């Protein structure tokens, strides 16, 4: 089993210190890395990277942001990731955070559902002043649970799942960068794959500022118009 990581960056400058640190960590994990730079679309970038990786059936493919830090020992991180796929023959996407209930707004982190204990996972963030803080979505200390959709900061899946879902942009999306994660993971769920949150120490150097742009809202509205919502994981932990 090999692990491949596809990282998309729109940077037209040299890679950032954060991205360089991520690449170093993945190298220590003996993960094959494909950095797609100056991409015009995250959908096209992931398609291109997947083609470059040409993974075998038993491999794992990671799609992740270029502004994350994985704060684990390499051997422990790889063991955690591999365990997510060896424990289930129907595993879909694995990620750091997601929800058991995607409501009519199609916003996975929606506050009312968070308060209703529908979310799973935890991610560390950092303020502009450099202060780190945890965003803990998980009730009752049960982070590694099945979910319907996952956040795109970190996603991993097998070639079987990826090829079934398809990496191309849906025709109804107008934006090239938005809502890909909800599209990919919800489609995997609809196809019978089981998405799951993995508990690991991850720092995201972003607080979701891109949510405010028009293309995010346009793709969200298009997703809502083309999806039967809500999506619910019917499990004892989804209550």
- Tally of contiguous helical segments: 7
CATH-defined architecture: Alpha-Beta Complex
Class by SSE composition: alpha/beta
What's the helical proportion of residues? 25-40%
Mean pLDDT: 90
Going across the biggest sheet, name each strand in turn: 2-1-3-12-5-13-10
User: Which CATH class applies here?
Assistant: Alpha Beta
SS elements, strand count: 15
Structure description:
- The longest helix is centred in the middle third of the chain and has 13 residues, at 74-86.
- The chain contains seven helices and 15 strands.
- The chain is globular, with a radius of gyration of 17 Å.
- The strands form three sheets. The protein has a seven-stranded mixed β-sheet with strand order 2-1-3-12-5-13-10, sandwiched between helices.
- Helices cover 30% and strands 26% of the residues.
- The protein has one domain: Alpha-Beta Complex (Spore Coat Polysaccharide Biosynthesis Protein SpsA, Chain A), CATH 3.90.550.10.
- It is an alpha/beta fold.
Main features:
single chain; 239 residues; alpha/beta; Spore Coat Polysaccharide Biosynthesis Protein SpsA, Chain A; seven-stranded mixed sheet; 15 strands; 26% strand; globular
């Amino acid at each position: 089993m090999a692990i491949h990581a596809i990282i998309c960056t729109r940077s037209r400058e040299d890679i950032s210190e954060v991205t360089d640190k991520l690449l170093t960590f993945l190298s220590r994990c003996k993960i094959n890395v494909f950095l797609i730079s100056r991409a015009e679309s995250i959908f096209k970038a992931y398609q291109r990277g997947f083609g470059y990786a040409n993974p075998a059936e038993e491999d794992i493919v990671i799609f992740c942001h270029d502004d994350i830090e994985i704060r684990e020992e390499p051997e422990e991180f790889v063991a955690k990731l591999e365990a997510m796929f060896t424990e289930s023959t129907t595993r879909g996407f694995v990620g750091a955070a997601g929800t058991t209930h995607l409501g009519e707004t199609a916003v996975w982190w929606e506050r009312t559902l968070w308060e209703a204990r529908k979310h799973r996972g935890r991610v560390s963030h950092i303020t502009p002043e450099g202060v780190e803080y945890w965003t803990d979505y998980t009730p009752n200390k049960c982070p590694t649970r099945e979910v319907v959709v996952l956040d795109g900061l970190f996603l991993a899946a097998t070639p079987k799942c990826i090829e079934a879902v398809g990496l191309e942009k849906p025709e109804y999306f107008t934006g090239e960068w938005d809502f890909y994660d909800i599209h990919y993971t919800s489609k995997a769920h609809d196809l019978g794959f089981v998405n799951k949150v993995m508990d690991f120490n991850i720092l995201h150097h972003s607080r979701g500022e891109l949510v405010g742009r028009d293309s995010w809202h346009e793709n969200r509205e298009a997703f809502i118009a083309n999806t039967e919502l809500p999506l619910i994981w019917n499990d004892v932990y989804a209550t």
